[in-house]
Amino acid sequence: xxxxxLKAAFIEELIKVAxxxxxxxxxxxxxxxxxxxxxxxxxxxxxxxxxxxxGVDIPESxxxxxxxxxxxVAYLAKSG
Length: 80
Known about the structure:
The protein is an all-alpha fold and 80 residues long.
């Protein structure tokens, strides 16, 4: 997948977890907890959704590496 496709997929899964977020309002460097206000359960649901979609195991120690769309794209690109 291209970086653009990875970002689109990440945003799609993010919106499934937090439907009040609008895709066009999410910036590359928006922090999923600090800026987008996901709580810990939302983050866990996002990790589960990313695992289901990409088949990538994301250990809790790696959560900071998916904390923004830009970081998540880089993480998913190297993991995929």
